[in-house]
Request: fold
Amino acid sequence: MMHVTLRQLQAFEAVARLRSFSRAAEEMHVTQPTVSKQIRLLHEQVGLPLLEQLGKKVFLTEAGEKLHVTCADWLDTWGRFEQTIADLKGLKQGRLKISTVTTAKYFMPRILGPFCAEYPGIDISLEVINRTRLLERLARNEDDLYVMGVPPEGLDIESEAFMDNPLVVLAPANHRLVGRKSIPFSELAKENFLARERGSGTRMTTERVFQDRKTELRIKMDLGSNEAIKQAVAGGLGLALLSSSTLNLDPAQTELAILDVEGFPIMRSWYVVRSKGKQLSVVAATFQDFLRTHVQLFMPRP
Ligand code: PGA
Reply:
């Protein structure tokens, strides 16, 4: 019988997932030698090498791959057990892990304030990443809930729309099309566009909108954030399709205008998503309920 500890398995799982001792140490809030020691003790118990390090790169051996799968399942089961105990000890205690796409960062933190005030016993971790990275986390079952604009097709998920997510055409306030009514979409073919990085949901939607309308999309520049795009639009580098959620409460907004293009705003929704098989903890279910009933807290201002 091997003598392994939860700590050792956690350290191994983090190194295997992040492929880095230093990032694992950072995530676990311990020093790198502590992580190395945990892995060494685990290695001694298993009796086979688990990791190989070439330069700075960490690779898993075959035994390491097998252990990684086992660890991930086991830690997930353990996490559920801890959550059940927290639920039993007193409702509304424990941890809530949410991943949200970058474009939802304009409103998600706003709901967390009142939520934490109502349930001070709940610790929250909020990951803010683009759509592709969020889907990776969803596939690895890393969080309780996911917030995104375009839920993936073909995955075993449950999604629920909770708020409007209109897509608008943004231009600098002094652009020639500002103030014109019902601009034909074909006018946009003459314009340069600023687009989010590949992997972003906004980028995917922008490309789709142009494809569906059989119109050429001239991308002048890729930018890694909505903020950078808004600044670039304000600076006259081009137009952009963005979620109107990105415009809330932004003082720089006077430099930007929303164009009245035919068919726009494209009405879409924000969704809260979870894996179908995943049993929601009381905490996660409480949050989802809170989201449904407090949407007005982060609705765009009229
Ligand atoms: P993004 O996602 O922040 O990756 O662009 C937006 C969306 O899912 O609509």
